[in-house]
UniProtKB/TrEMBL annotation:
Domain of life: Eukaryota
The protein's name in its UniProt record: GDSL esterase/lipase
GO terms assigned for molecular function: hydrolase activity, acting on ester bonds
Keyword Signal: yes
Signal peptide start-end: 1-21
Source organism: Pisum sativum (Garden pea)
Length: 350
């Protein structure tokens, strides 16, 4: 393990300041895919798992928690910034009960999407099942905290949702049943409709402060360049990025309509796409050296089971890389993204 420099010691001290203060919001709830999953899939028989090395090698105590990252996710950094001293618990890990529930929980599941068929293919938790777990959570919370306190945790807590990328990369583009039935734009419309239903269901369950993240420029993920692009050119796949932009715009306009439709809702769309695109295309400006290959293995294709202790070529210093595996960014990237998300989230933090 690297010894902390004077600078990082200083930085850790700075982080301790908000940790001792009261968090800015009572609870954080997350729903969606691997961008937010802190370990729910550890409990399922699925290929979409990351609870083994080298995942987590830069996490506290080098523990592979199930996060698809070498270290922390964006949500981990964001919740630290908001004043939480411990990371969000994965709800499905049954040992997490009692007082741990008071600060919210993570319901996200890697490999899931807005199309329930995406999660079904990989035996992960679909968005609708995540809502069922949330109902179960609410019953537990009422028992522990009593009804009035539980209701205020639910209505004052903030909700982050991130989903959609898996529907394209792990379903639509590799599944002839979907690919032959719809154009990617028609499929985007279906996904955004499902997103809208999800948000309305969450609202009906008491959520009021909701931040929805846009999807990344999926054509820039190392796996996408390998599978759908041309490695010799080594550029992002424009066709996929255009679909992501379309999806995000549609999501944005849909949320504007939901704001009018749902009284008292505080709903914001949080950009991840533009910043990621800038980082991938100007890595050195953000302190990165490599943005086309990921750290794990050859960096062209390894993700999940293919990214393991025996993968040959895994980089030494993941901080120099934008991507940790061929689908997921590094801890260093997530830290930059968290600051960007928190700054946009101010409407739901008051
Ligand atoms: C959503 O649309 C609004 C209004 O057109 C725009 O100002 C905003 O930047 C968009 N947000 C995102 C995250 O794209
Ligand atoms: C890893 O890379 C980062 C970014 O280039 C650098 O700041 C850091 O010192 C490196 N760490 C080690 C142990 O070489």
């Amino acid at each position: 393990m690297r010894h902390p420099s004077t600078f990082s010691t200083y930085f850790l001290l700075l982080l301790l300041v908000p940790i001792n203060a009261k968090p800015k919001v009572p609870a954080i709830f997350t729903f969606g895919d691997s961008s937010l999953d802190v370990g729910n899939n550890d409990n399922f028989i699925t290929l979409a798992k990351a609870n083994y090395r080298p995942y987590g090698r830069d996490y506290e105590n080098q523990i592979p928690t199930g996060r698809f990252c070498n270290g922390k996710l964006t949500i981990d950094y964001a919740s630290e910034t908001l004043g939480f001293s411990s990371p969000q618990p994965p709800y499905v890990t049954l040992s997490i009960k009692g007082d741990n529930l008071l600060n919210g929980a993570c319901f996200a599941s890697a490999g899931s999407g807005l199309d329930d068929a995406t999660a079904q293919q990989y035996n992960t938790i679909s968005m609708n099942e995540q809502l069922e777990f949330f109902k179960d959570y609410q019953r537990e919370l009422m028992k522990i905290a009593g009804k009035p306190k539980a209701l205020s945790i639910i209505s004052d807590g903030i909700y982050f949702i991130g989903s959609g990328s898996c529907d394209f990369l792990l379903n639509y583009y590799i599944n002839p049943v979907r690919y032959n039935a719809y154009t990617p734009y028609q499929y985007s419309d279906i996904l955004v409709q499902s997103y809208s239903d999800f948000i309305q269901n969450l609202y009906a369950l008491g959520a009021r402060k909701i931040g929805v993240t846009t999807i990344l420029p999926i054509g820039c993920l190392p796996a996408a360049i390998t599978i759908f692009g041309f490695r010799s050119i080594n550029k992002c796949v424009t066709k996929l990025n255009n679909v992501a932009i379309y999806f995000n715009q549609k999501l944005n306009s849909t949320t504007l309509n939901l704001r009018k439709k749902l009284p008292g809702v505080n709903l914001v769309v949080l950009d991840t796409n533009q910043l990621s695109y800038n980082i991938v295309n100007n890595p050195s400006q953000y302190g990165f050296i490599e943005a086309r290959r990921s750290c794990c293995g050859t960096g062209l294709i390894e993700v999940s089971l293919l990214c393991n202790q025996n993968s040959i070529g895994t980089c030494v210093n993941a901080s120099q890389y934008v991507f940790w595996d061929s689908f997921h960014p590094t801890d260093a990237f997530n830290k930059i993204m968290a600051a960007h998300l928190v700054s946009q989230a101010s409407p739901i933090l008051s």
